[in-house]
Amino acid sequence: MIVHRFEEIINGREYTIEVSPVDDTTWRARLARMPGGASALMPFYGDTPGAAAQQLTNWLALAHRGSAKSV
Description:
Largest sheet: 4 strands, antiparallel
C-alpha cells in the first residue's frame, strides 16, 4: 500500500500526517500513530494525497489556534 507522509508544524506543534489510498480517486489523511499520542482523531478525505493532508492540516490549525505557546 502506498502511504504518503507529511511533516507539519501547526501553531508550534509538530505533526506527522499519513495519507493512504481508499480507492482510485480518494485518499484518507490521519495523524501518524506516535507512542503515547492520541489516535482517535477522525480521518479527512481528498481527491489527492495533498488535498487530504491539507484538510487535516486546516482542521488542526483551527482546533489548536488558541493553544499556541506564547513567546
